[in-house]
Amino acid sequence: MGKVVNVIIVGVGGQGTLLSSRVLAKAAMLNGFDVKMSEVHGMAQRGGSVVTQVRFGPKVYSPLIRMGEADVVLAFEKLEALRLMPYLAEGGRLIVNDLAINPLPVMIRAAKYPDQEAAAVKEQMKNSCFFNATAIAEGLGEPRAANLVLLGAMARYLDIPEPVWEEAIKATVPAKAQEVNLAAFKAGEKA
Q: Could you give the number of structural domains in the chain?
């Protein structure tokens, strides 16, 4: 692969966004790519946005992805997908956990959740994939593994072989959670 691949992973604090980014970065490194990663997680502990940018390829000079240059936006929640869509490149992929987590303005009824906008994106964007990763993870007995379900779904579009992904998961995820996370990743590949 000669080009740099740009991936944005976005979610809400506590969804495993950072772990997923670290697994992706590790898999890319194990596959021989130069990797740069940037994290923004200011109010993550209070349910705020968590955004990571991972870039990998033969040589990467900056961890930051400019608007309109992301090959993939992997969103752990629908509103976060809407917020980061301007970063998606023409022909890029949007992979979204079909889940709504109400932000504070919605909880205090100062705003409405933008369900109609998310539904419009789902219908209009041909390179989008909305599915309930949380339900798949719950079916495995671990709802917190939805992040690895989403990562597995994205892996189909990246030039990294499955054994490398498995090695990256084992190197990044704590030993007690490896089995369920590997199962979640494989379920995501099939989703």
A: 1
**What's the burial of 59, exposed, middle or buried (CB within 10 Å: 0-12/13-18/19+)?**
exposed
pTM: 0.88
Q: Cβ of 46: how many Cβ atoms within 10 Å?
A: 10
Q: Return the bridge partners of 5, or none.
A: 56
Domain span holding position 102? 5-190
For the segment 64-110, what is each residue's pLDDT rounded down to a tens digit? 999 999 999 999 988 888 888 899 999 999 999 987 666 656 567 77
Question: What's the rounded Cα separation, in Å, for the pair 191 and 187?
Answer: 6
CA atoms within 13 A on the CB side of 77: 22
The enclosing domain of 32 has a CATH number of 3.40.920.10
Backbone angles phi, psi at 37, to 5 degrees: -140, 140
Q: Report the alpha-carbon distance of residue 26 to residue 4 in Å, rounded.
A: 16
E strands, 41-143, are 49-57, 70-75, 88-97, 128-131
